[in-house]
Amino acid sequence: MSIIKFEGFDKAIVGLSLSSHNQEPIIVYDFNKCIDITCEAEGISDEDAYEHVLLNMVDLDEKSGKPLFICAYNEEFNLVFEEETKKVNIKPNLTLVK
To answer: How many CB atoms lie within 10 A of CB 31?
Structure first.
């Protein structure tokens, strides 16, 4: 198995995901930082960068070694998450603890 690492996105790496199932570590990226890096590198809007990251990084058609992406959970994320889950009829059960 090989670890997949995206060139030019080192600053978006949060760490590694470790498993007790004798699997190799998987790189974990900050989704929002990937969007910021894409905006700057490509000179495109946040919306276009969002789509680019989703289609070309998150939805990567690989089974093993595929990176993980996280989003910081804050008020802004909570609003976006609630809006996105309404589109697919998911009832989120998350509460922001302060």
So the answer is: 19
Q: Does pLDDT of 97 surpass 60? A: no
pTM over 0.85: no
Q: How far apart are the C-alpha atoms of 93 and 89, rounded to whole Å?
A: 13
Element (H, E) at 29: strand 26-30
How many H helices and E strands in the chain?
Answer: 3, 3
Beta strand extents in the chain (DSSP E only): 13-17, 26-30, 68-70
SS3 71: coil
* Each residue's pLDDT tens digit, 43-81: 999 889 988 998 889 887 766 678 889 887 656 555 555
**Strand partners for 30:** 70
**DSSP code of residue 7:** T
